Structure formats: C-alpha cells, structure tokens
C-alpha cells in the first residue's frame, strides 16, 4: 500500500497553489518533505491530476527502454527527475540504479538479474535421495 493516496496529494498541491505557492508552509502543514512536494507539483504541472495517480502495479521495463532513457539523459543533460516526468517513471531512484548499472557493466547491466534460489543439479538430487534411503534403512 502506498503512503499517500491521490486525494491527499491533490489536497497538498491545491493548498500549495492557494497559498501563494509557499513551499515551506505547505510542507509544515501536511508534514511532507520539500523534495516530495516538488515532485508532486512537477507531476501535476506536467500531467494534471492524472500525474498524481497512484500506480498499483509494479512496472517492469525492458533493457531497451532503460537504455533509451539513459541515452536521453546523457544526450540532453537531463536530471533523473526530469526523465521521470518525460517517460512516466514513478521513481527517479530506479533511473539512478539504471545509470549506475550501465556505468559498471554496460548494456548487460540493464538486463534483469535471475531471482530465487538456483535449481539443484540432478547429480546432487540423486545423491541426496540415496542418502535419505540409507538413513531410512539404517533406522528401520
């Protein structure tokens, strides 16, 4: 579950614009950080109310898309926050991770990592099964 819903974000942004765009006052009133408020304002100005919508599904991005975002950032001297707005990415932290992986490993760093425990080798499974049988026979 997200920390802030769309209604709350909209109230905060509306309050900001109604009170002569006072960032400090809005942050104190709603106890949100200035960085968070700036991001919500930018999303609102870029996409309207839909920019404040909560994304309920985890999005996965292809390595080609990640590479395209990185190339755009490097060619246009963009920040990660600006790229988030342009490409509709929820979190600039994801882009920072992509940049770091790309700098360390190149295009291969943008491919998803295998998850979970590796499968046992067939030989190890047979050995384990034999060991269990021996143990069972010794106990009986």
From TrEMBL:
Residues 112-140 have a biased composition (Basic residues). Belongs to the IS150/IS1296 orfA family. Signal peptide: none annotated. This is Transposase. One of its GO terms (molecular function) is sequence-specific DNA binding. InterPro entries: Homeodomain-like_sf, InsJ-like_HTH, IS150/IS1296_orfA-like, Trp_repressor/repl_initiator, WH-like_DNA-bd_sf. Residues 8-52, 65-118 form the Insertion element IS150 protein InsJ-like helix-turn-helix domain. Residues 111-140 are annotated as: Disordered. It holds the Pfam family HTH_28. It comes from Gallibacterium anatis.
């Amino acid at each position: 579950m997200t920390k802030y819903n769309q209604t709350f974000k909209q109230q905060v942004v509306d309050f900001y614009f109604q009170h002569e765009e006072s960032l400090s006052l809005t942050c104190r009133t709603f106890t949100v950080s200035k960085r968070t408020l700036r991001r919500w304002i930018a999303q609102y100005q870029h996409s309207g109310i839909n920019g404040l919508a909560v994304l309920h599904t985890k999005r996965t991005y292809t390595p080609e898309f990640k590479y395209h975002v990185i190339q755009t950032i490097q060619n246009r001297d963009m920040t990660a926050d600006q790229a988030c707005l342009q490409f509709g990415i929820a979190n600039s932290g994801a882009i920072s991770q992509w940049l770091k992986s790309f700098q360390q490993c190149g295009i291969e760093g943008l491919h998803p990592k295998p998850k979970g425990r590796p499968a046992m080798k067939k030989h190890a499974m047979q050995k384990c099964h034999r060991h269990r049988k021996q143990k069972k026979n010794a106990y009986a």
